[in-house]
Amino acid sequence: MSVATASTVEELRQLARRRLPRAVFDFIDGASDDELTLRWNQDDFNRLAWLPRVLRNVTKRDCSTAILGEVAALPLIVAPTGLAALVWAEADALLATAATSAKVPFTISTSSSVRMEAIRERAPDSRLWFQVYPYKDRDLVRALISRAKAIECQALVLTVDVPILGRRLRDQRNRFTVPLRPTSRLVWDLVRCPTWTRHILTYGVPRMQNFVDGKRSASVTSLAALMTSNMDAGVTWDAIDWIRQQWGGKLVLKGVLRPDDAEQAVRLGVDAVAVSNHGGRQLDGVTSSIEVLPQIVASIAGRAEVYLDGGIRRGSDIAKAIALGATAVMAGRAGLYGVGAGGRAGADRAFAILADELDRCLTLIGCNSAKQLDVSCLLKRE
Ligand SMILES: Cc1cc2nc3c(=O)[nH]c(=O)nc-3n(C[C@H](O)[C@H](O)[C@H](O)COP(=O)(O)O)c2cc1C
What we know:
Elements: H1 9-19, H2 22-29, H3 36-46, E1 48-50, E2 65-67, E3 70-72, E4 76-78, H4 91-102, E5 106-108, H5 116-122, E6 128-132, H6 138-150, E7 155-159, H7 169-173, H8 184-192, H9 194-203, H10 215-218, H11 223-230, H12 238-246, E8 250-256, H13 259-267, E9 272-276, H14 289-300, E10 305-309, H15 315-323, E11 328-331, H16 333-364, E12 378-380
Parallel strand pairs: 4-11, 5-6, 6-7, 7-8, 8-9, 9-10, 10-11
Antiparallel strand pairs: 1-12, 2-3
């Protein structure tokens, strides 16, 4: 099997697993503690069965949708993923250009391994969004936001589910740090994974480039240290107003799982809520995103857009989220598996697979467009 012949995101995942050192694959594939939420994110999609309509002329189909006022070819947003260049040199820029070809927005992570300005240079026509955390150091947040404005990001995604970092046991077992620590397993992997090793030797070990010129990051060597030193367990809803003052544009709140929190977010004027458990990487045992989506859609009642984030591995998962009322989905690992399997070609393949599966799903359930999906198309299996 190759990237060109991979026909599912799971096959791209398997290719990435073969190509990458164990610690790197586990960093993207893994989640916190027992990884229950990671599994539920996917399992709960599989508990939803289709109720297709027949004999509806479905010759002309359209998967496009409006996301924050602009048309995207698919109801898909590429989610922010930090340190993506661990899987392929300059992965963030490759994902951004692949997203442009797929005509969907790409979210730059605060922890991206290519500087946000360099991503803009490499992807001049991309519809870029920028993600921030409400760090303790508000000068740092202000500076990041003003750089995001300068590169013309169209939306700011404020991630609010990381007051502290979740405990990722695979990373602990692999003794995963950035820069990578030379364990005997890693040395073996350097031999086993020659393409990956060549990239690292050519481009160096990825760092969180958005911080590299700042005095704050100079002495911080590990991902955990950087994250935990800046994360603010004391942050409250007041942060939204403060962020609003810094960022006049569209604001997305990422990491909401309760209708009352969604309601509060809408009252404070956010433009969209991303129903997300961080791909199962924060508190393990929290609900899957798809399980709580309908309640959140009901509480928001059209006053803001709602994105489903977590567990998207199939085009039919996208369709299920839309049928339950999401405006669009955000996908993190799907793109990372693609780029990990084969760089830009792999990222293109991941988005093409999702697009193709979504189109086939719509056709087979008797819909001409994503807009025709609704809850009557689905049945919950017990
Ligand atoms: C390797 C990796 C890095 C991530 N880094 C970030 C990040 O920097 N900021 C953020 O808000 N979310 C981050 N996330 C979470 C994703 O944005 C998204 O919520 C999650 O991947 C969705 O689940 P999925 O991977 O099943 O699509 C990361 C996820 C992964 C897998």
